[in-house]
Here is the input.
Amino acid sequence: MSDLIKLLPDHIANQIAAGEVVQRPASVVKELIENAIDSGATKIQLIAKDGGKTLVQVIDNGCGMSDIDARMCFERHATSKIQSADDLFHLQTKGFRGEAMASISAVSHVELKTKLVDKELGTKVIIEGSKVISQEPCSCASGTSVSVKNLFFNIPARRNFLGSNTTEYKHVLNEFLRVALVHHDITFTFHHNGDLIYNLPQSGLRQRIVHIYGKNYNNRLVPVNEETDIFKVTGFVTKPEFSRSSRDQMFLFVNNRYFKDRYFNHAIQQAFEGMIPSNKFPAYFLYFEVPTESIDVNVHPTKTEIKFENRQEIYSILRSSIKQALGKFNVAPTIDFNQESSFDIPALKKGERIRVPEIKVNPNFNPFDTVKVTQNSGFSSSRKSEIKPNPSEWENFYEGAKNEVSSQQNQLNLNTDEVILPSKMDSENDFDNIINEKAPYQLHQKYIISPIKTGFIMIDQYRAHSRILFDELMANWSDDNIKSQQLLFPEEFELSATEMVYLNELRPQLIKIGFDIKIFENKKVKVTAVPTYIEHQSAKQVIEELLNNFKENSIEEDADFKTICIRTFANAKAIKKGTNLTVAEMQNLIDELFACANPQISPNGKKIMLTYHLDDIIKKFN
Here is the structure.
């Protein structure tokens, strides 16, 4: 029997290796920019076309390469970053595997131009599918320019599995931001299809974040700074009120390298516990500095998964440092949310002096003398007769309670923009329900407690109303009956480059359902009309929420677009936590909730109610 095992040809081996290193155009962007950074560049340009499928070009002003290095960089396992295995545990550079250029050139058309600073001429190398087409001297600027064209031209199956141009552009943009956020001392520019997306000058970290996400971001950032013997963490987290529905602004870096880690993400979430809703996520930009020998970055070909030697200790320090930062800048909530206003001490007016309180004591006061109480007693009273209970005062007690309930209901019903719930009961029935032990009542203006035979149920009022509105809109939604409402005062605001990608993609569909959106100066948006479903809500808030929902849910067909829009509108219009409800409104909410097809789960997939059985409650007292 003849031998079966044979060595693969180099071009096939390179294509197999390319499958690990080059997954999509964004992988090419990552590898080329990291090489540019390792070259000592202070200016890096990224140029892409059609989401990087047609062209990815990176130009830097780094050290450049000699004629031999320009050719050697395309060989497998060729690198200038490490010399021995020990160097893997003391890495100070990014591209050290020596497979990037070889893998990229195996599945694309590559043109490399490079020149050393002290040379007059540079070198131009052209490679197609691992085959060197030409290498010759050329005139070019100092540094290196790499153009990668027609990615996966020789592997049609891989190219067919790439996403649309918009999808690939999103991934390219994410890779660009991951590098730009950590290297704020480098000037970056990014062009896509001829449009300037980002022009980021050298700056501090805070300025770099603001340049990327807009001027409004400056007031959202809370600095984090903690240094221990194990590691050092610096950076920023956003204030709790600016938490987001998507995870696209959660960045972790270690030794100037981006990485992903659910364990540390959980530590950050724990630091915000009690300050943000469970379905929201804080944005953060955190930078770790650890000894290079205490981490292993060679776990995954993309180098985004890293092993830490002191994993548990870093978790605890990270969580406490963020809590401390939030508390230091008075971001954390106080214990007493509803402070009694009568205890507030008013500020002194100009020229007013502090008056020492005077205490007057009646030396003739006898605490056992309950027959007569005069004005000169130890406490103030306008009654001089004997204190006796008056039965007639108790007869009208409930009458006063009725009037108070009716007054409170009328006062709440004035604010019809906040709570739009049909009312089935009048004030007399409201009072009857209050003294009825089965009437619902509100807990912390967030939950509704409703007694049942076996115990009671606790309902999240916001989620319940979202479910009711979602089912109502879903049943009545039709492209023919969608009406648009012109805004008296158009709203203007800025979006990030990532959000603009989604807005440009979805704008035709958003206009179809009633939005009037104009885009100018690349990132500025002007909204002059909205669907009547959300006429009382902020257009900016609704659009941002829509874009966040679209980020987390791919739109394959119009049905998906419809569902996401209705869910967003329902969430925007639902009564918020902290809204007072009358007994009639609570009962109405419960009735309409149980009329829904799925009253247990909100449109976002969260629980709406919890059931507490009397037997379980009794056991807790035993």
Residues 165-182 form the longest helix (18 residues).
